[in-house]
What we know:
Layout: H1 2-24, H2 29-40, H3 45-70, H4 74-81, H5 89-117
Amino acid sequence: MKKNRNILIMVFFYIIGSAIAVSYLPWWGLGVIFALGGFLFVKPLWQELLLGLLLGAALWAGISFIMSAQNHHILYHRFVEGKILTLNPFLLTAILGGLHGLLGSLFGHMLGIYLKRS
C-alpha cells in the first residue's frame, strides 16, 4: 500500500510541477521538473525512463493541444491540409515531449546516483 502511495505522490509531483513550470518557464521547464523528479525519487533506471517517456509524452501532447485549442487549431489545420506533415502533429509533439521527459529523467537519475556515491 505504501508503494502505491509513493507512485501517486510522484505522478502528482510531475503533473503539478510541469503545469507550474510550463506556465512560467519556456519549453525546457518540463525537462527541469523531470530532472528534479528523477533526482528526488531515485528508482530503478528502467522505471525512470519509462515514467519520463510516458508522462513526458502525455503532458507535452496535452499542453500542445490546449495551446492549439486556444488558437482554434489554425496551425494544426494548415499542417494537415497543406500536407506538410505526413504524421499527426499531436503525435509528433508527443514523441518529442516523451524524448524530452526521458532525457530529463535520465539526467536526474544519474545525478542522484553520482551524488549518492560521493
